Amino acid sequence: MHPREIKPGIEAICNVHWERRLFDALIPLPEGTSYNAYLIRGTKATALIDSGDPVFRDEFLRQFEDVPAIDYVVSQHSEQDHSGLIPAVLQRFPDAKLVCNDKASDLLITHLAVPAERIQIVSDGEQLSLGNKTLQFIFTPWVHWPETMCTYIPEDKCLFSCDLFGSHLATSDLFVRDPAQVYEGAKRYFGEIMMPFRSVIVRNLEKLSEYDFNMIAPSHGPVYDQPEFILEAYRDWTSPKVRNTVVLPYISMHGSTEMMVKHLTDALVARGVSVQPFDLTVTDVGKLAMALVDAATLIVGTPTVQIGPHPAVHYAAYLANYLKPKVKYAAVIGSFGWASKAIDQIVALIPNLKVEILGTILQKGLPDAETLLKLDALAESVALKHRDDPDVLKD
Ligand code: FEO
Fold it and tell me: Is the pLDDT of residue 1 over 90?
């Protein structure tokens, strides 16, 4: 896509990856994604902020045919979807300096074989003048790697945030024009990428609040020309508040666990608790990650394979533990044929979740009357916890 102006002298170069369906060989991309670089034309120097994924090499380099010189290439984040074309840009513009922080320098040298002598290290808060525009570097570690930083141009009140505030969304929209669609993409992005670093992001949001900006230009998805929309969403997702919702990933092999899940779902709904069940045989794990962003409770349902949980449930529990959502309560339910350690193994998989375990219910074969009563009691316990917990939003 050709460069498009977002502010006078600032152009977005968006490589839209419409057909990509998996990121990092891990994260589903049902709506594709994009990689945004930004060209800043100052009166004395020109800078490029980030580059793009190597798959766009030729298309990306074509966008610089009318650019006589680039003086600085700023790398805000060393992951290859943003840094992968930096070597090609440095080759195309042999006098350009690569501007990054100390941690990024090591990563760019080791991951991309960038020549060390081309690198200009900057410190937190340092400024670089392009003439009528100033680049100010704001270190924001762990959004998404330890070296990540943002760039601020005070003359334009514009913040370049790389992964932070990004959305995995392939669109021709330069700016956010369908907020509901972007909210969905940004929440998915937060759930999959940012959620494990929630407490650090809170500190980064506080740090960024000291800067006066009216535009956020991320490196994935459309540009926010009304940034309060995404700032409010991030404040919500990183706050201690959770929703009156149970997320319920499960697998059922011969119907017993599914019967338990359906009974529990009905019992929770009857008590005013929202439920999001996810049959893991058909679930997009990105949707599961999104649901975990603000749910109060996680309940895992598993059959027994040999004596352990179903491998897909094992993976979902591992993923939830890795993503560290702010869930406050948990339970595990399941079934078995002749013997089972499935529940203990699932509980052992989620040490990162600071949850109160409200129950474990294991059924041999089809759910009997006693188990159905236990499921009712679990639903009651969840409903009471949600009712009495001041951090659970009362919808
Ligand atoms: Fe978009 Fe962490 O890379």
Answer: no
